[in-house]
């Protein structure tokens, strides 16, 4: 926060920790919001200002989200974020500040983490007894009559596709989803540059960074999740930047990130945040209906172009499995 102050998550419950002027300004915002309760937000900026007030918008929500989305929040439609936004009322925010209430509903507030092997441990456990071909790129898919498909030359009764829907027309070749192709090509997304760093030991899990002096929006203190995530006698964390960053820009930005991160290595993933517009859900729905006739199903963050967190992605996959079992597929 301004002046390097660390404030627990979520910021709206911890305004009592900020300076007196900010608290007074927040209180004035709360009165104004109460008088304007029924407003339907036109875009993300409008939502944030009318849910949390100008003071928190300017000091936290705006700079943080502009780093993540790399655009004016006026140009972030509400559809992108449907179901993912906190909705505290004015009364709750005031009550939580009076009583120093710690939020227990957020996914971040309590979580289990593997002692060894990181999140790969879960994938390995789930994979036990299954025929999984690692390091094998699916590059060709063809539909056969009676709902069968050929994937990389092997025939299957049904296919559940968890990859990136943007790559599907190319994999299908001439079978290829031509009525949908232009819309699929136009789907927007962001990538992430993740930087592994040695860092000063700290007591945090995720650190959200609205600070405009650098471009990184978040530090994940992976070294605090399990000791086995660290090399002996080192504390490590990952620093995230939206989109592609050159190494020299990373090094320059790290100078302003707290806890003195020291660069070890970095990785850029092109597809990390799917971006929806008002037509995306309808597109994916029609695509799913068309593919379903071929016993070909889509599930996952980039297969469905949904901004799923891990739990939601797994929940959607479990729902699809139940549905297919019910239908005898
Ligand atoms: C930077 C970042 C930070 C995140 N932080 C959090 C967090 O703190 N908490 C949280 O809950 N969630 C977080 N998430 C979200 C979480 O990672 C996703 O919700 C989850 O991984 C989605 O699972 P999925 O199975 O849909 O996709 P993925 O995990 O992406 O799995 C898809 C798999 O398909 C494979 N694949 C794709 N194409 C092909 C092909 N042609 N051939 C073979 N294999 C292919 C990919 O290699 C990949 O292994 C974060 C995501 C990102 C990108």
From the structure above, extract its key features:
single chain, 329 residues, alpha+beta, FAD/NAD(P)-binding domain, 2 domains, five-stranded antiparallel beta sheet, three-stranded antiparallel beta sheet, 11 helices, globular, binds flavin-adenine dinucleotide
Strand-helix topology:
Blueprint: H1 20-34, H2 44-52, H3 54-69, H4 90-98, H5 120-127, E1 141-143, E2 149-151, E3 154-156, E4 159-161, H6 168-172, H7 178-185, E5 188-198, E6 206-208, E7 218-220, H8 222-225, E8 236-242, H9 247-254, E9 262-275, H10 280-292, E10 296-298, H11 310-326
Parallel strand pairs: 4-10
Antiparallel strand pairs: 1-2, 2-3, 5-8, 5-9, 6-7, 7-8
Helix pairs in contact: 2-3
This protein binds flavin-adenine dinucleotide.
Describe the structure.
By secondary structure, this protein is of the alpha+beta class. It has 2 domains: 2-98; 136-329, FAD/NAD(P)-binding domain (3-Layer(bba) Sandwich). It contains 11 helices and 10 strands. The chain has helices at residues 20-34, 44-52, 54-69, 90-98, 120-127, 168-172, 178-185, 222-225, 247-254, 280-292, 310-326, and strands spanning 141-143, 149-151, 154-156, 159-161, 188-198, 206-208, 218-220, 236-242, 262-275, 296-298. Strands 6-7-8-5-9 form a 5-stranded antiparallel β-sheet. A hairpin with a 5-residue loop joins β1 (141-143) and β2. The chain is globular, with a radius of gyration of 23 Å. The mean pLDDT is 92. It binds flavin-adenine dinucleotide. Residues 137-138, 162-164, 167, 192, 240, 272, 300-301, 308-311, 313 line the site of flavin-adenine dinucleotide.
């Amino acid at each position: 926060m301004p002046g390097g102050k660390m404030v627990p998550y979520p910021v709206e419950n911890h305004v009592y920790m900020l300076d007196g002027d900010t608290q007074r300004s927040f209180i004035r915002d709360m009165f104004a919001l109460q008088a304007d309760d029924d407003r339907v937000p036109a875009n993300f900026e409008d939502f944030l200002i009318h849910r949390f007030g100008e003071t928190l918008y300017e000091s936290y929500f705006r700079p943080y989200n502009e780093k993540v989305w790399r655009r004016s929040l006026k140009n972030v439609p509400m559809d992108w974020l449907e179901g993912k936004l906190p909705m505290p009322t004015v009364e709750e925010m005031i009550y939580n500040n009076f009583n120093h209430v710690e939020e227990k509903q957020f996914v971040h507030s309590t979580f289990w983490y593997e002692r060894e092997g990181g999140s790969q441990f879960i994938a390995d456990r789930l994979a036990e007894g299954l025929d999984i071909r690692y390091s094998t790129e699916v590059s060709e898919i063809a539909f056969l009559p009676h709902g069968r498909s050929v994937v990389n030359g092997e025939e299957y009764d049904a296919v559940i596709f968890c990859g990136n829907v943007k790559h599907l027309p190319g994999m299908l070749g001439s079978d290829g989803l031509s009525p949908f192709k232009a819309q699929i090509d136009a789907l927007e997304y962001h990538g992430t540059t993740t930087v592994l760093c040695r860092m000063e030991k700290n007591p945090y899990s995720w650190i959200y960074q609205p600070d405009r002096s650098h471009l990184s929006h978040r530090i994940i203190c992976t070294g605090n999740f399990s000791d086995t995530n660290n090399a002996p006698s080192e504390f490590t964390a990952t620093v995230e930047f939206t989109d592609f960053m050159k190494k020299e820009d990373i090094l320059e930005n790290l100078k302003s990130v707290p806890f003195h991160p020291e660069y070890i290595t970095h990785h850029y993933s092109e597809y990390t945040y799917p971006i929806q517009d008002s037509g995306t859900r309808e597109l994916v729905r029609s695509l799913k209906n068309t593919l379903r006739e071929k016993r070909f199903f889509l599930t996952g963050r980039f297969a469905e172009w949904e901004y799923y967190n891990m739990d939601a992605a797994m929940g959607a996959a479990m729902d699809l499995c139940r549905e297919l079992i019910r239908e005898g597929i």
